[in-house]
Amino acid sequence: MSNDSTFPAPTAFRSAFPTTHWTVVLRAGEGSDTQARAALESLCSQYWYPLYAFVRRQGRTRHEAEDCTQEFFARLLAGSTVAHARPERGRFRTFLLAALRNFLTNEWHRARAEKRGGGQTLFSLDLESADKRFAHEPVDPGLTPEQAYDRSWAIGLIDAAIADLREEYSKSGRGVQFAALQPLVWGNPANESLAEPAARIGMNAHAFTVALYRLRRRFGERLRAVVVETVADAKDVDGELRHLIAAVSTHS
User: Fold this and answer.
1) pLDDT higher than threshold 50 for residue 120
2) Which residues pair with 231 in a beta bridge?
3) What is the CA radius of gyration of the chain?
4) CA-based end-to-end distance of the chain
5) In whole angstroms, what is the distance from residue 69 CA to residue 72 CA?
6) pLDDT by residue (tens digit) across 132-144?
């Protein structure tokens, strides 16, 4: 599956990079605190599980990782940590991991002596689900914790894009079609004929191929839209998409 068909770069996107969640956060001093906090919460909601898993891979217990993740986000949302971010660092993914590593090194022991969360209100963290997910993830000794973090981030974005498209197709009465197409969105490595899955839902191979092409386009557009929110400069988007693909392809 080529980048041209999967990750389109619309002309409007190329000519006018939008104001994104990350740029709103970086420019918090220029806008409202409410707007910046909402943007930061939206970004953090995509990253809390990869960070939780990263802490677990540092040798922390489940409960330590839960406490650490909640305390880290409480301080991130309440404090001035983001003020130290620099636009040239570009990617929210990179900033967030660096901030967590600094927290683990310099503040974790002190934070444990204080009330967890510092009394701050957090967005919902489904930590029970996170522990179950972590327990069932395959252990890949060839990945560093940082590589595993990137893979978890990438899989989360892909899963979210798929879920959005599933809902979109279901609402338009194409749920059965989506169920048949979805396993092929990320490619057809066996290069199998599409005639059989097409026949199962009453489509001919040509119509099925066209439908698959359209779904892949929508999938690429959705991924691009999510990634755009996490970078500070248009030039970083394609690099992040390539990194996303590499993260889920490594050791797979």
Assistant:
1) yes
2) 91
3) 20
4) 17
5) 5
6) 888 777 777 788 8
The C-alpha atoms of residue 101 and residue 51 are separated, in whole angstroms, by 10
Classify the C-alpha dihedral 91-58-145-140 as positive or negative: negative
Most confident of 1-10, 64-73, 199-208: 199-208
pLDDT at 3 over 60: no
Full-model pTM: 0.75
Phi, psi of 91 (to 5 degrees): -105, 130
Separation of alpha carbons 52 and 44, rounded Å: 12
Mean pLDDT over 6-14 rounds to 43
User: What single letter denotes the amino acid at residue 55?
Assistant: V
Domain spans in the chain, listed from the N-terminal domain onward: 18-137, 157-252
Here the tokens at position 221 are 């557009």
Highest mean pLDDT among 52-61, 120-129, 191-200: 52-61
